[in-house]
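Holo model, iron/sulfur cluster. Inputs:
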Amino acid sequence: MTGTPPEPPPGTTPGSKPSAAQHQTQGPAQGPTQDPGQGPTQGPTQGLAPGPSHGAASSLLSVEGLHVAFPGRRGGPDARAVDGVDLDIGRGEIVALVGESGCGKTTLARSLLGLVRPTRGRVTFDGAPLGRSSRALKAYRRRAQLVLQDPSGSLNPRHTVYDIVAEGLRIHAHPGDERTAVAEALSRAGLRPPERFFLRYPHELSGGQRQRVVIAGALVLGPELLVADEPVASLDASVRGEILALLLRLRAELGLSALVVTHDLGLAWNIADRVAVMYLGRIVETGAVEQVLTAPRHPYTRALLSVLPEAPGDPVVLTGEPPDPSYIPTGCRFHVRCQVLADGTAERAGVADACRSRDPGVLGGGGSSQAACHWARTQPREVSPAGPVP
Ligand code: SF4
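Output:
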């Protein structure tokens, strides 16, 4: 990243934001999210299940034209939870997928892991299409791991920490030394000395320690991709920074890629290289996190930013019904709630008819800055103002 870093969006915690490439070659990110008192993991790493070499700049995961639909309620139209998404995640890159509850982000994340079957579209991992047989999915899940938001709910209360972390090794018949692999995964997740945690049960741990156990269970197989669904949403503010710093350190040390699903733009700012804003089953804006969060172009992104604490001006109150994936509006799917259309700005720009009748289309999955908005496309990018305007 070059040039003067932009101001963080209001209500977020500013920090130094090294790029993915810098994370490959430098130590962990510095800043307020740095894990206090947790130095880099020491010790041998050969016990962890082997992963592939890291560091290439190519795309690790690629999604094209992904659709996921569920049967509608009481015979109604299908709920189009994911309605045409292209998304790439590079090696060593952290992408934040943000949006309100019900926008389809969790369904998208689960479909990337093969946990939800897409209705249409294609998922490619490391250059090969994702297979759908149980054998192919089992092999894939060794390389792409899910980190759930609620460690209390995702840890079996009757299992010790050791058994929880070892479970993945046993499922995949890990050929190496199990105890060494478990110890190293716990150590990498910041639970040191690891032997002290082997025989503990989840209820004997703090919330932050439980989340570290979840992360250790994901790390033990040496994955290349973590999909983290609201990874710190259930944690106290004091622990959130530690877990975020841990994820950044794992990226720096292991070259992990990550998709972080969150409704929290502050979290996206602190952890991600790139952000994808999702609304009603589609990504409506994407780009480098600094670009999107300091100079948002899509009215929906602007509305999300306007309600953050300390945001300048009045918050944008979205009108219209909350989104229903069974009844996606024609034209721009956001048009019934769009403040730019409602206040006449789109009319003055000559795009109001297009807003109501023409779908702005599916954004490309790459790293360029894009917004699925007829009005935004009429605005010069360099003067695109930050903040909740107009
Ligand atoms: S295309 Fe029109 S309705 Fe849709 S977000 Fe842009 S300005 Fe609003």
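The pocket of iron/sulfur cluster is lined by residues 298-299, 332, 334-335, 338, 340-341, 346, 355, 360, 373-375 (CB under 6 Å). Residues 295-379 form one domain.
Archived with the compound record.
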